[in-house]
Amino acid sequence: MIVLGIETSCDETSAAVLKDGKLLSSIVSSQYFHSKYGGVVPELASRAHQRVIVKVVDEALTSAGIKKEEIDGIAVTYGPGLIGSLLVGVSFAKAMAYGLKIPIVGVNHIEGHVFSTFLMDEHPDFPFIALVVSGGHTMLILVEDFLKLTLLGQTRDDAAGEAFDKVAKLLGLGYPGGPFIDKLAREGDPNFVKFPKPIPSSKSKSSRETDELNKYEFSFSGLKTAVLYYLKKINFQSLGEEEKNKLIRDISASFQRAVVEALVEQTIKAAKDFNVKNITIAGGVAANSELRKTMKEKAENEGLKLYIPDLAYCTDNAAMIAFVGYIKLKSGIKHDFDLAPVPNLKI
Ligand code: KG4
Ligand code: ZN
To answer: pLDDT of 152-200, one tens digit each?
Structure first.
């Protein structure tokens, strides 16, 4: 079965071709121009998707050596994401499926991340715990089968990647901030400032869920505010260049330590509670070198096995969408042509 995957939920236009679940090609066109605005501008993102989508799909087919008449089905991200961006991908996929008279299936972007390790030679057996950490999401998911996912907990406020981006902005670094903080933290002291742990207590007043769910939640907005207050306290802006440069490294390392410790602690806790032996991390933040290293060490200590996709499949890509689409189409799941984007689609 040949499946074409299309992903346009945020600022990456991507298309990929899979044959019987094996990757033939994956093309990702990133909208780097958002960096000058310090974040993704939704209107500009959808216009850019519109401009490049035909070229990206053509490139994916050419590079796979597949003619469009050979495609058996189309998988497209229909949420969660930016409405204008999703509309471009969904509309394009519908038109193409209609023209070729083939089935279309809408895929949840988060499910794509959860199964991105299945594009690699090594992937986890069921059941496994998936930590999805990106600019928009921080979720712990129990995965018992391809079609059996249970959301254990998520962030109550900012996503982990969003916290990286906001703290980087406070430190005067570029966008997206995660890679800058990751690099600078390597030369900093992670014990320089003791920032609060971004895990809400289960007794917290703002608790909206049951205690069981609370056990696996995160909260990053307090951590970001703690960095802001710390910078104000030391009068960061008035300091000299040399002093600032050293502080940026130490604060990056201290902030990153707090984020990584929380992500690792909650993931290992979920694996132990549900007696699961395999863990996977996906999403842009899975590129973080300290997260990869610490999660691997802690997992090994607990007798757990960690699977992380290659960097190109950690960030947004259509290959992971094509894979989930392939599983769904094979199970007889497809959508009608009234398929529409759902910006806040849940697991
Ligand atoms: O999955 P992704 O490409 O896009 C979505 O948000 O869906 O994730 C982007 C996020 C950004 O917040 C970026 O700062 C973060 O991933 N990120 C990192 C690293 N590389 C990307 N965060 C920490 N360390 C990194 N090395
Ligand atoms: Zn994503």
So the answer is: 999 999 999 999 999 999 999 999 999 999 999 999 999 999 999 999 9
Pocket of ligand 1 (CB under 6 A): 10, 134-136, 161, 164-165, 176-179, 182, 283-285, 287-288, 315-316
**Cα 52 to middle of ligand 1, angstroms:** 22
Residue 113 annotated in ligand binding: yes
- Residue linked to tokens 């992937």: 123
Domains, in order of start, for the chain: 2-114+314-330 (3.30.420.40), 123-308 (3.30.420.40)
| Percentage of the residues of the chain whose pLDDT score is greater than 70 | 97
pTM: 0.94
Sequence-separated (6 or more) residues with CB below 8 Å from residue 129: 140, 141, 142, 143, 152, 267, 270, 271, 274, 276, 278, 279, 280
3-state SS, 183-242, equals HHHCCCCCCCCCCCCCCCCCCCCCCCCCHHHHCCCECCHHHHHHHHHHHHHCCHHHCCHH
